[in-house]
Fold:
Amino acid sequence: MKRWLWPLLALTGVVGFLLGLVAAGSGRAPIPQIARLPAAPAAGPLALVAQPLPASDAVPSAPVDFATVVSRLNGTVVNVDTVSRDSEEGSRFVFPRRWSDELREGSGSGFVIDPAGLILTNYHVIDDATRVTVTLRDGRIFKARVVGIDPAIDVALLQVSPSEPLRAAPLGRSKNLRVGEWVCAIGNPLGYVHSVTVGVVSFLGRKVFDPSLDALIQTDAAITFGNSGGPLINARGEVVGITAAISGQAANIGFAVPIDQVVAVLQQMRETGTVTRGYLGLGLTTITPELQRALHLQPAQGALVQEVPESTPAERAGLRPYDVIVAADDQPISSDEELTRFIASRRPGALARLQVWRDGETIAVPVKLTQRPLPPSMRSLAAETAQVRPASRGDQLLGLSVGELDAAQIHRRNLPETLGGVVITSVDTAGPARVTPIKTGQILLEINRQRVVSVAQYKAIVSALRPGVPVAVLMYDPASRQRFLHAIATDPAP
Structure:
């Protein structure tokens, strides 16, 4: 090869490399904006799950095997379908609940935490629900009762009544998570049930909605609409969080509620239906070396008071800006977050004894706590708004309204002349049939293999059915001109 070719080839390679960099940097697609998003029975309530499973701090020596993890936990994940009044509006951070505006239906995820039928999900999934329905992986459908809610951390506890124990997911310890650790999420994004995504923990303790209370797990495991309420699982097969929100400005930025926060309020949710937390009403910050030098503070750690709003427990107790709270009930306080967590763990009305450094001396300040208000990002609703209300249309058992099918209708709708049955005139949006393929205008032919030829006969058959027992209905769909058989999971007796 001629000598003059070598410099030419080298120059060509450099130019090609630089052009490749330019192409890679300029060809990025725009990021779209996202609109707001069998174990043995327990010996007692929450016996298997009220205490998280102990977890080792050691990193697993074997390669991460999420295939085995998913095979064990997939059966504990459920689909949560709701009929609700309205949805959340836009935000930079969104609650990934799947919505159908026309039918006012919502869809999310959840997971079983007790074989007796206790299920965790997000509060925003069931917020304002008139009906909550849970579908297991094996296809069984249950009407769920809302047992308790905690809007402040976006958690709800549901109860279903299975005839046999359900498989429950083991709970881990979110405090043992590390940034960079592998995790997986299981849920029902966009209706694709039991989808699995894998990623890493991107950040711990992220503040999104309520800076004083949030300690969210950030992950790049893909989360989208319908994932809300599903489990975030570590490589040991333990639930370490509840997927709750995604960024509305970037892809692959999702957030989960730490399971430790949830476990801390489980019993209160189950016993009282709501969660109350103590409240001081202070604006706080953590002492930094710069603040310590600038303000000539003696304590190097503690919660530094930067604001004392009017009409708060802190003002009534005489706390002042630049006070440093160094202990509460003889427990050392190293940061503003530690103080907030401590106060939130106390019940409203409790007396907290604070040790406060002020202008060179330490004084004792007793404070009577009030109830912590909900953050502005959550709608302040009373607990009863999340309770399920009875069906308002159609029969109470199936949630269907029917009309006579006469010869004129058969001729007008070009139906088979031999067709006999009753016409579905409405499907109760809060009734059991809402989650079935049954639609208005379809023809109901049989109930439990009994022919239905009139409205009177329909009422007689339905009145003899037993609540809580599935009902098989044979339907005719004029649109597809086909018959289909479906089971309606009726509600148990009140």
Remarks:
- The first strand starts at residue 77 and ends at 84.
- The chain has three domains: 66-272, 278-371, 400-488.
